[in-house]
Amino acid sequence: MLNVGMVGVGCISGIYLENFANTFKNVKLLAVCDLIRERAENAQKKYGIPKLYDTMEELFADPEIDIVLNLTRPYQHFEVSKGALLAGKHVYSEKPLGADFEEGTELVRLAKERGLWIGGAPDTFMGAGIQTCRKFIDEGRLGEIVGGRCAMTHRGVESWHPDPDFYYQRGGGPVLDMGPYYITALINLLGGVKKVYGTSRTTFDKRIITAKPHENEIIEVNVPTHYECLLTFDSGATVSFLTTFDMYDAKQANIQLYGTKGNLYVPDPNCFGSQNGMRFLNGATNEVEELPLEFDYSENSRCLGLADLAAAIEQGRPPRTSYLQTYHVLEVMMGIMKSAETGMPYEMTTCFDREAPMDPSLPHGIL
Questions:
Q1: Which domains are delineated in the chain?
Q2: FRET label pair with 142: which of 5, 49, 230, 313, CA 20 to 30 Å apart?
Q3: Rounded-to-integer distance, Cα 122 and Cα 175, Å
Q4: Around 251, how many Cα atoms within 13 Å sit in the side-chain half-sphere?
């Protein structure tokens, strides 16, 4: 069993804390740390966490900690992950790997140099939905994949998130916020990306928060909030991707893939296993077939990727969520943004090979 130190006890931490306590037994949450000490104290009290630190440097210095779980804001990911690597710790970070490609490159260099792993969110692709779709594709039931479409559309996070400002600053925006879920799912279904093209706009330069506790405060928007993208994969398939904070709900399918044998409708990649929307339009019969889930983890299983990272370290194999994946995803996103700025397609410099699929025969919580 490996010990984990959590840095950042904000909004996303709740589901991690629940799954540490109830699902994944090959990792132990040994310590917590947050700039707002009360958050760390509340988590420690509720979940019986042995240690609490005032600073992340104190947590990094704890010789009992094997992995640092980085749940800070996107623009803070680099500083926290770098500090942990320099202290000799493995890292699991919420998405994205870094706020820009240069940050990601430096983190990967440090990890390789020190023989450490960086794992990273999202781990939703390891859930029942995407894994079932991967099996369907790998068995050849979709035929050759020609292309696809995906869409993530909503009107902004300020109507529900308790602290939404960072979504509209460096490291935020719809590509870096939701792009990791869609791109990670796509590369686990289709393989690596070789070229991207993107266009963008910022529709509103200010946002009014309507959620408590910052209701009626004004957000200055400093990033584009609407992107249309085209991804070309190594296989030759092309997938268009709309991701925006500027649209009312358009009721579009999350991911559609078009194959020579029919169309596959992939469930929401922000979830682990919703069967809703997972179906196959059979080109031979023109009938729609519902696809049953064939893998574990259909519930909210955030922490699954961290548990796999720990198992991989102990087993001497690459983690399914390693920087080999998150670095490629980061370059895809940065390529989209750079292409939107220059008006030119972006040629990828990183490559990606999929890790092994999940093993449905293992007991729940075992990797």
A1: 2-120 (3.40.50.720), 125-290 (3.30.360.10)
A2: 230
A3: 14
A4: 0
Write down the residue that tokens 């579009």 correspond to. 252
Return the structure tokens found at 264. Answer: 């596959």
Q: Is the peptide bond before 122 cis (omega within 30 degrees of 0)?
A: yes
Neighbouring C-beta atoms of residue 161, cutoff 10 Å: 15
Contact of 61 with 87, CB cutoff 8 Å: yes
Q: Is the pTM of this model over 0.70?
A: yes
Q: Which residue has the tokens 């800070």?
A: 72
**pLDDT tens string 260-314:** 999 999 999 999 987 566 899 999 999 999 999 999 999 999 999 999 999 999 9
Of 287, 320, 264, the closest CA to residue 125 belongs to 320
Q: What is the pLDDT of residues 320-357, one digit of tens each?
A: 999 999 999 999 999 999 999 999 999 999 999 999 99
